[in-house]
Specification:
With about 550 residues, the chain is of the alpha+beta class. Helices cover about 40% and strands about 20% of the residues. It folds into 3 domains: about 10-145 and about 290-350; about 155-270, Glutaredoxin, CATH 3.40.30; about 400-530, no CATH class.
Length: about 550
Amino acid sequence: MIERQGRSRTAQVRAVSQVTFSIATSDALACFDRVRNETLEWIARRAGQPLPADAWAGKSFDLQDVGAQRTAAVSLQSPKYWAARLDDADRSVPQRTWITEIGIGIRSSAAVLVGCRLYCVALGANPPYQATVPGFVRQIASREPATVDGRKLSDAPWLIQSASDVDDLTSFLCSLTRSHPVVVVTEGSNTEDPAIDEGKLAAAVLGVAHVVRLSRSAGFHLTRKLGKEFSVFDGAVRTYRAGFDPDKDEPSSHPLALARSIAGWENDGARAFERFLTQQAMWESVARGDLEREVPSFAAVLVRAAQEARSVARLAGQSDAELLALASDEIKQLEGRAEEERRTFDGLLVEAEKERDRAIAAAEGARSEAASLRSRIAHLEHALLQQGPAKAATIPASLEDLGEWGSLNLAGSVVLLNRALRAAKKSAFENSRLAYEALLVLRDCYVPMRRGSGNDSREEYTRRLMELGLEESASFTGSRAAEQGDEYFVDYGGRRRELDRHLKGSSSRDIRFGFRLYFFWDEDTQQVVVGSLPGHLSTRAS
């Protein structure tokens, strides 16, 4: 079959953004009607033709007049729910349409739930666009007490200035119920103005992310609460993703951009970085899987409405012929939904496969570059050894500085996960020097041995361990490792990994004297990854 020029066989379908928010109210039915009418006003400005009287009466309707854009709504009585769909043709890109699906439901006698989903569907060219949230969300947020993650839905940033403000922010960041990212924008060192316009950013990501402006003084409080690894200050911007846990997460999971990086971002500085943050927030909003559960798709509500009509008709005692007609209508709705979802799924699948291929190519490129860099580092290290013994690493007096010390002395050979660093800082272990020496043995002997440097490294490794009173063996692993929950597992490189080896020192159960260092060997990066030290992890005996 020959395709028409400029037209693809399968539509390109991209989920652009999705928003869900709750409105607290003393009269849920009145609030429901009010929000539905505000949404209809927004739809009416885009429909191309006046909406029918049924629309304003809160009934189901389907606008198919000549000159109108596809516009429809479905009303359910039990549960009380209203869903709408608007297909808005792009005014500048032919064969590209923006599909907005909206759902409004009564969650309880004191709350109304509102959700919307925006798709971009292109049958031809699909040039880049800036992802947005439908305008009626801002309209409703300005008139109703709407909340996202329990915080007021606002297009202005959350100002954090005092120690008590920081306490509130920290609780919110660590909340298990938070499902949206928090972007913290900090004041610069020489000026109160942040590197980006946090007001514009807050307006752009309304409903999909929370934006915070952190004062310089409050920044010090936040560092004390979360630690240096999760701090943000001096004009930097950090995004704390949902599920944030400072005791387990790696800092890289919650991206930090320094002021100097923002200034040179994509040759357009702060404005380009604001667009980047907005796009990231939109992508994360469509990656969440809870919207369909809370706010069903328009097609799903259409089917539910047909089922409801048949149920009402049966209770009203209608004839078999009338019930058969309703059942036939329901089947048509189901078939229509199936076909619509097939087209949408096909389009989304094509785009997902493209994204996957790009990600795989990027990962392969990164691995290749990392391998080249490791080879270069090994060559330089060998050259340095030829010039004479390396200067011995300075050992700090406590484990408080383990992170900074590791960055200076272990990079390229041993990775210290944040979980290990935080455990070390909290530890009462008295022989901190042993922990540092053990890490150096891994760097100097174990890593070269695993990289294939020969028997000399193995012999040196055994000798150094004996000098320190340590031995290496398998951890409490295998099928029994799972008995201890997540203790023997870490997330690394996008995978769940097992801490299958450990260095054993004293087996004393006194936390001041017992020593263990748990790690695994990462074949991809050719590095040791340390997940816990210096204390014991749990076993069945403990």
